Amino acid sequence: MKLVRDKYIDIIPKEELDITPKDDASKLDLILDKLKEEALEFIESVQRDPEELADLMEVVVAWGEMNGHSFDTINHLRKEKSKKLGSFTNFVVLKDKPEPDKKSKAKK
User: Is 0.90 topped by the overall pTM?
Assistant: First the structure.
């Protein structure tokens, strides 16, 4: 099973769709699977297709609404966090820390 857009009900034959009400756990599983799918499609798209990014955003909006958070609320939180901590536009990267030597830990 895979989550599809609501208007597919007008495009795909009814017998290929499951439109029964879902419990919250099922909805969460479906939306998280869709988020992974859309993220991978965006990453794998040759030109980083903006339509794939729009699909990814649509899933984020659906998750927010499912949890009582409007797009405006999520965007406000994003802006506040950006003001406080910055964004990702300057590509500041945290260096990997070397793994501690397991032998020296065992001696302690």
Answer: no
